[in-house]
Amino acid sequence: xxxxxxxxxxxxxxxxxxxxxxxxxxxxxxxxxxxxxxxxxxxxxxxxxxxxxxxxxxxxxxxxxxxxxxxxxxxxxxxxxxxxxxxxxxxxxxxxxxxxxxxxxxxxxxxxxxxxxxxxxxxxxxxxxxxxxxxxxxxxxxxxxxxxxxxxxxxxxxxxxxxxxxxxxxxxxxxxxxxxxxxxxxxxxxxxxxxxxxxxxxxxxxxxxxxxxxxxxxxxxxxxxxxxxxxxxxxxxxxxxxxxxxxxxxxxxxxxxxxxxxxxxxxxxxxxxxxxxxxxxxxxxxxxxxxxxxxxxxxxxxxxxxxxxxxxxxxxxxxxxxxxxxxxxxxxxxxxxxxxxxxxxxxxxxxxxxxxxxxxxxxxxxxx
Length: 368
Description:
The chain is of the alpha+beta class. It has helices at residues 2-36, 87-91, 104-132, 150-154, 173-181, 232-258, 270-283, 285-303, 311-324, 330-358, 361-367, and strands spanning 41-56, 62-76, 135-138, 142-145, 161-165, 168-169, 187-194, 197-204, 206-210, 213-217, 220-222, 225-228. The strands form 5 sheets. Strands 6-5-7-8 form a 4-stranded antiparallel β-sheet. Strand 9 and strand 10 (213-217) form a beta hairpin. It starts with a helix and ends with a helix. 27% of the residues are buried.
């Protein structure tokens, strides 16, 4: 009975934890930057809708935990444009503490601080994981061989350890992938160790087209994964490198989707995140922390897109304001926000459709 309850509630609890951490850190970035720039923060909310819990701190900020945990917000004093606020509201503004009363540079810092906080979170989590649990390294040992693949034809077996390819020493499974992918259809000599004895096997690599690019294929999967414990300095360097790698891979994947080189089936929304949260939570705390770090990079990137209503859209308006010496005309901002809202709504619906398709909901309904 207890095991059933744990299984039932694992996914929603994991989803709430993942989303709660990401949203809190993002909004905390805005909050700390606003305080640093001298802007009064009126409300800090995790979630939307009716508050489950709320309290007011000594600076007058109301902290809220709302029932709908799909985001959050920081409400700053005088955040409305002066022309949009009625006279009675403007009369209550504290001089020097309003958001729009600050120079454009300060407003840019406050807006950019949210996404920056997400990148910092990813860096801290990766660094901590590598220092405590170790950095996962897939060894150059073959875990399995795909039937009828280039590896199977060459006589490779599970448990073989790859020592070198054409004289290039192999230390990790990633080294094998890097060499093989760059040689579609090529002929290579694999130096392996089988049962402790060295052998050399000639291999003719296969080839496949991935997103319009021809790549080499060997037909093996990784075997043993070891965890390399790092010192503080090495862990920090590895955390920075991992954060950059995730950022680069995400940007590359998004560009491939936009340019049509890659399908959009991988584009997911809240339902996909909830499902993955439950799956990752089963693997342990280290896997869940790593998942949060990866999502944090994604959240930071998405918010930097130059789409009005996102942080990147606000930054774009402020950059234009800094260049022009005056704010973007209200009508242009209004049209921009409408277009941005329509675009995000469309992406949300599309991502939800993908989620439902991946979860098999439509197939289940058809079966009824």
